[in-house]
Specification:
Length: 542
C-alpha cells in the first residue's frame, strides 16, 4: 500500500522547490524535463516538466498568480486546513465508525424473534455475525488501494450508499438467505468506516497532533459495539426485530446526506494531482501567458506530481494489499503474536454479544431489554479505558522521561491489558444465580478496559515500528481480528453448555493471561526483536 509517510515526502519535499529563474537559466535539466526539439519545433514549443508540491511558491505556478482560477487556488494541503474543517471530518469519521460498530452489536438482540419467524436455530442465525465480520476482514484489502488512487471521498460515499441499501435489505428481507446476503454486503460497506477512518485522520493530522483524534476513533469503535445491543434490546422488546434495522437504515441515510454535503476529499496526493491537472489545463488554455521569461523565449512549463509517478498501477497496489499483510503475518513474529493477541481480545468482545444473554437470561431471568441494558457496562468501560490509558501514559512520561522507541506505546497495555483476563475470571465466577447481577455486569466493563488497551496499543506500536509497512501490518491484524470475532459467537453456546459458565470463562481468562505476556516481552526485549526483523532493519537503515 502507498502510505502516508511516502505521500508526505513526495508532496512536501523542499529539495525540488526552486525559484523559476533558476529553471530558466540552467542548461542542465534533470530527467523530468522533456523537449519537442527532435520534432523540429521551435524554442517556444519546448516543454519543461516540474514537480508540483504543496509548498511550491504560488508565484512559481504562473506569471500572474492572482489570475489563477479557483480550481487551482482552492485545492490546499489537508494538513493546513482550519480546525473547523478538520473537526467536521473527524466527527463524520467517528460517527461512521460508531455506526459500523453499532451494527455489529445490534443484530443479536432480534435473534429470538427471527428464530420464531423463520423456524431456524440460533447458530445458523449467528452466521449473520460471521458474514458481517468477514466483509470487514476482506473488503479493506481492495478498498484501501482504491481510496489511495481515486480518493477517500468517493470510496466513503459509495460505502455509505451500500451500507444504507444493505441495511434496508436486512429490515425488509423475508428469508434467512436474504439476511445473510444483506449482512455480507453490510460488512463490505461498514468495513470502510472501521479501517479507512484511521487513514482519514492520518490525512489531516500530523503525527504529533494525532493522539486525541485516534483516541476518539478507538473509543467509538468499542462504545458502538456496546451501544448496539443496549439500544436494540429495547427496540426488540417494544417493537420488533425489523425496527432494529429500520432505525439504522434511517440513521445511515441521514449520514449519507450529511457526508455528501460536508465530507471533503482528504487524501493529500489525490488533491495535489487534482491541483496539478487544473493548473496544466489552465496553462493550456492561456498558452501565451504561460512563458516565464519572454525575453529569452523560455520553455513552456507544465507540472506533474511525484506521488503519481512513484506509485504502481491499481492492479499492483491491490496485489500488494492482498499479499503483503499475510507475508508479514507469517514472517514477522511481532506481527503474528500481536495479531493473535488483538484477535483473541476482539473475539472476547463479540463473545459477549452471545455470552451476556446466555448468562443473564439463564441465571437472572432477564428479558431482552434488560439484557441489552447490561451492555451499558461495555460503554462505561470504554470511556474509563480512554481515561486510564491517558493517565498511564502521563505517568510513564513523568517517571520514565528518557524512555524512547515504539515500546513506550505499550506501557498502558502492560498494565491495563491484564484487565481482560481479570474480567473473564470475574465474569465466570460471578455468573451463579445466587450472585447479584451487578457483579458480572461490572466484569464486562473491566474486560472492555483490557480490550480497549490492547486494541490501541497494537495500532500505535505497528505504526511506530513498521512505518511505511504499517498499513500492511495493520491489515494483517484486522483480518485476524475480524475473522476470529465472527467465529467466537458461533461456539459460545456450545462452549458454555459443555464447560459451564465458570469453566469456559476461566479457560478464556487463562488464554488471555498467557497472551498478556506479549507486551512485556517487547518492552524488555523489543530492540533486539526489531533488529532481527527484516522489515524493521530496512526501516532503521533508511
Amino acid at each position: 500500500m502507498y502510505d502516508e509517510e511516502q505521500e508526505y515526502a513526495a508532496t512536501h519535499n523542499p529539495k525540488t522547490i526552486q525559484h523559476h529563474k533558476n529553471y530558466v537559466s540552467s542548461r542542465h535539466h534533470d530527467n523530468t524535463n522533456r523537449t519537442l526539439e527532435n520534432n523540429g519545433l521551435g524554442v517556444k514549443d519546448q516543454v519543461e516538466y516540474r514537480y508540483l508540491e504543496w509548498n511550491t511558491p504560488i508565484e512559481e505556478l504562473y506569471s500572474n498568480s492572482s489570475e489563477l482560477p479557483p480550481s487551482v487556488t482552492s485545492v490546499v494541503d489537508p494538513f493546513t486546513w482550519e480546525s473547523t474543517r478538520k473537526n467536521i471530518v473527524l466527527v463524520l469519521a467517528c460517527w461512521s465508525t460508531f455506526m459500523a460498530a453499532y451494527t455489529a452489536g445490534a443484530y443479536t438482540s432480534g435473534m429470538k424473534q427471527m428464530e420464531l419467524e423463520w423456524g431456524i436455530g440460533k447458530v445458523p442465525l449467528l452466521v449473520g455475525v460471521t458474514t458481517y465480520t468477514t466483509g470487514f476482514a476482506i473488503a479493506p484489502m481492495f478498498l484501501a488501494p482504491i481510496s489511495e488512487v481515486n480518493g477517500r471521498r468517493n470510496v466513503f460515499l459509495a460505502s455509505y450508499l451500500l451500507f444504507t441499501v444493505a441495511m434496508v435489505g436486512c429490515a425488509g428481507t423475508s428469508s434467512y438467505a436474504g439476511m445473510l446476503v444483506s449482512r455480507a454486503l453490510l460488512g463490505v460497506g461498514g468495513s470502510t468506516f472501521s479501517t479507512l477512518c484511521g487513514g482519514v485522520i492520518a490525512d489531516i493530522y500530523h503525527a504529533e497532533s494525532r493522539g486525541f483524534p485516534m483516541a476518539c476513533f478507538s473509543t467509538v469503535a468499542l462504545f458502538g459495539t456496546g451501544a448496539g445491543p443496549l439500544v436494540s434490546g429495547f427496540i426488540a422488546q417494544h417493537l420488533n426485530w425489523r425496527w432494529i434495522h429500520w432505525t439504522q437504515a434511517i440513521t445511515n441515510g441521514l449520514l449519507l446526506l450529511v457526508a455528501v454535503v460536508l465530507l471533503k476529499e482528504t487524501r493529500g496526493s489525490v488533491l495535489l494531482i487534482r491541483r496539478m491537472r487544473a493548473l496544466n489545463k489552465y496553462l493550456d488554455e492561456t498558452e501565451d501567458s504561460s512563458f516565464l521569461d519572454k525575453e529569452t523565449g523560455a520553455q513552456r512549463v507544465r507540472w506533474k506530481v511525484r506521488a503519481e509517478e512513484e506509485r504502481g498501477s491499481l492492479k499492483d497496489m491491490v496485489r500488494v494489499s492482498l499479499t503483503r499483510p499475510f507475508y508479514l503475518l507469517f514472517t514477522e513474529p511481532v506481527v503474528f503474536f500481536f495479531s493473535l493477541w488483538v484477535a483473541f481480545s476482539w473475539g472476547i468482545l463479540y463473545l459477549f454479544l452471545q455470552g451476556v444473554p446466555l448468562v443473564f437470561q439463564a441465571s437472572h431471568h432477564f428479558d431482552t431489554a434488560q439484557t441489552g441494558a447490561v451492555f451499558t457496562s461495555m460503554c462505561v468501560g470504554t470511556v474509563l479505558a480512554l481515561a486510564l490509558n491517558t493517565l498511564v501514559e502521563r505517568f510513564a512520561h513523568h517517571f520514565l522521561p528518557a524512555a524512547s522507541g515504539p515500546e513506550t506505546r505499550l506501557y498502558a497495555s502492560c498494565t491495563l491489558g491484564s484487565f481482560l483476563p481479570i474480567g473473564m475470571f470475574w465474569f465466570g465466577w460471578t455468573s451463579f444465580p445466587s450472585q447479584h447481577w451487578i457483579l458480572p455486569t461490572c466484569a464486562v466493563g473491566v474486560a472492555t478496559i483490557g480490550i480497549y488497551s490492547i486494541y490501541l496499543a497494537v495500532f500505535n506500536y505497528f505504526a511506530d515500528t513498521y512505518h511505511k509497512y504499517a498499513s500492511s501490518a495493520l491489515a494483517a491484524q484486522s483480518f485476524c481480528r475480524n475473522m476470529l470475532a465472527g467465529f467466537f459467537p458461533l461456539v459460545t453456546t456450545a462452549m458454555y453448555d459443555r464447560m459451564t459458565f465458570q469453566g469456559a470463562s476461566s479457560f478464556l481468562g487463562g488464554v488471555g493471561a498467557v497472551l498478556s505476556i506479549v507486551p512485556w516481552v517487547l518492552v524488555l526485549y523489543g530492540d533486539k526483536v526489531r533488529r532481527r526483523s527484516k522489515f524493521a532493519k530496512e526501516i532503521m537503515g533508511e
